[in-house]
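Good morning,

Both structures are done.
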Amino acid sequence: MKDVISVNTMRESDAYTIKNYVSSKELMYRAANGIYESVTWHGKVAIVCGTGNNAGDGYALALILRQNGIYCDIFLIKEKFSEDGFYYFNKCMESAIPCLVYSGEDFSDYDMIVDSIFGTGFHGEVGEAETKIIKAINKSGKYVVCADINSGLNGDNGLTSSVCVKSDITVSIGTLKPGHLLNMAKDNISKLVNCDIGIKSVNRPYGLIESSDVKKIFPKRANFSNKGTYGYITLIGGSYEYSGAAKLANLSLSALKAGGGVVRLAVPRCICDGVMPYLLESTLFPLDDSDGAIRFSEKQIQGAMKNSKAVAVGMGMGERGDNLKIIEYILKNYEIPVIIDADGLNALAKTDMSLVRNTRCRVILTPHLGEFSRLTGLLIEEIEKNPVEVSKKYAKENSVILLLKGPTTIITDGERVVFSDTGCPGMATAGSGDVLSGILAGICSANACSDDMLLCVASGAYINGRAGEIAQKRTNYVSMVASDTVNGIEKAISEILNS
């Protein structure tokens, strides 16, 4: 996994490294050199500098560009400098690198622009002078390089101020930060790379899951095995109002494609005839219903759960059925991974969560922001401002693995935090959450005895997102539907196995 650390941890780690290993001026030069080596430079370069150490990276970069025969001009917001920044600014003056205070230039004379205005410590709103120059950068149409993070983007949560630099490439320094990944980050960063400059992290980092991590959950399969080896899976969902036969079939098929052995789809009897034609490899288990919603029957739930190694519950159940009774029964009577999504989450949001905290099951909750708002009682805006810590706190207090869906997904058990940044705009369509639940059920079933269920869940998020990316390339982000993602699962896992 790639390390990801908070802005505060980065600040503390920077100070620790400077005190014990490397001078601050040397770290600034390493940062500038990392940016230089990460970019293919061409033509005439404008370097736009603020007033702090991020500006210092820009001054040091100007020196390196000059040494390598690349013409550059420096533009200042104002003549104010950090101590180390002033050191490199003076060196730029000694090297006769042109330096101007910005006065409304449109950058039409340049081929590339480097944004060194704000660093990862930025928060709040951009000032008037900075707003003007950021708007000019975005309007220029030039190739934009951001030093460490895009100016106007919050390093901890990926929210933007009223303006934010849009980059062709952002070169993070030392370690990735959450703000490079979350919320609006992907809409402002076309390409993200990281350069390690030798900063020693003082706290346990978060992780960004990679293909090599996911591969660990797919050990080579023995010839002497059968469908039961990889687990019976129970999927409980559906209602007359949300019959979604094709969506339920996608749910089942994604569980099989992700590694499950047998899928038992338990749905209300009133929609069985509609669902049946869509099921080829899965089995159908009818449940009693009333008013189009599932009614709790201990005997029927026992039948649906027979031999199951994992269960997913809540998808399309609506709110008129016995959702909470079904979930409560499963949590009290089984010891398997339980994925709760959609209407299952809405049912839990009306409880004190004690039944989740006291179960022997490994509970996995998969909310989007709206569902997580209902679970926590927090406004969406409050969650967006501090998604990692809110997620960690909730997972720890309720003894669950939380998977918070978003442009980059946050997965945490309250101690560890893993990000998955796969996915694409085409996945913003009905049924995408069902596909994810199916993938998670398949993985959890095949890995039911795993001592690292957090990795299994994060791997499910990675596969789901990668399958979506594959699907979008084959279709387009407008026309793509959830079944396209299902069809991408096979290629996504093949990539992982062959990596």
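Second structure follows.
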Amino acid sequence: MALFAFPIEYFVWHYGEGLRDFFRVFGNFLWAVYNFFSIPLLLRTFFMPWRRLQEEKKQQGFHAEEFFGNIIVNIIMRLVGMLVRLVTLIIGAAIIIIIFCASIVSLVVWLTLPLVVAVLFVFGLTLIINS
């Protein structure tokens, strides 16, 4: 009798607890990548200089060459920071999209796997019977 109860228990687990665990695992993957790439922090600090490198005033009073030199260096550091953060954001977003697409494909496989096993079992039995 336990042989007949096993498939029913398996289907209950597969489409119940197994499906909940499936969504929990892929949610954890998305959360991990989102936090690994620090997406909120990168967005908050998008316009900040790279590694907080910037020129500061060294001489008293106004000196045009120092003033414009500092502006140019600070603009370059901000552009470098923006470029590095943008590349990191693009890579993080691409990996999140890949994980999301992989989760959809995996979900379809997970939902159809018991049917595939049953079809292959019946196909194997017909091969044995017909030979």
